[in-house]
Amino acid sequence: MNDKQSLAQKFEEKIAQNQNENLSFENSLGVPIRVQPVMHVEVPAGDPQTIKARHDRSVKKYPEITVDEDEYVVLSMRRHSLGYILNIIFSSMVAVFLISAWIILCFMPNPLPIPANFKPQLSVIFGSITLLLILLTYANYVVYRANRIVITNERAIQWISTTIMSQKKQVINLESIEDISYSRDGILQHLFNYGTVKLSTVGDESTYTFAFSPNPDKKAEFLSDIVEAARENQMLSDKLFEDGEKMSVK
Description:
Blueprint: H1 2-17, E1 23-26, E2 32-35, H2 48-61, E3 73-78, H3 81-107, H4 119-146, E4 148-152, E5 155-163, E6 166-173, E7 177-183, H5 186-192, E8 194-201, E9 207-214, H6 216-231, H7 238-247
Antiparallel strand pairs: 1-2, 3-4, 4-5, 5-6, 7-8, 8-9
Helix pairs in contact: 3-4
């Protein structure tokens, strides 16, 4: 009995001294005993078949996004279309002004002494400005659509674009997100149900914002559930995963 107790004590002492090395000691008979420590490997939570099915689904639906083997897209967020519609309205007003000025100056009597031989050049100038306006409007649409957030079961990936030549990508682990909030200010935001979703991280006190988000209150609540599941290393329920797909915009 004493030999067994002594053996157990030696075993515990060896483990406490160095858990990364092969453990060896002798019993009362002088026979060496070797013990290989067991390594702890973190296994993703959830059914492997379900995870693989969701992963394959994400790869097919979002081929532009690279995800790990046990990772899948839960939510894809884009800006509310109202932001671009407002830009179209402004551009249309400018275009109407330019076309009206061109018609008045070139085809209607006006007090300005414009030579008749200059009117073709004037038409080219107004046409060029209008074409430039159309190109700028389309460029704004491309930039507006380029801003998005994709939430997986592990990360939050945000693409930020201010101009066609200026693009940035930032990635946040869900475990690093400390707080999720939203704001909705003004008549338009309440009327058309859009606002700003904010993700605050632990440590560096950074806040990642996503403006013109549709249904910001529902998105913030949904993101909180995803972050909580990631912190507890739990697989998302089928209902939560399906809700994310319904809210997603490709």
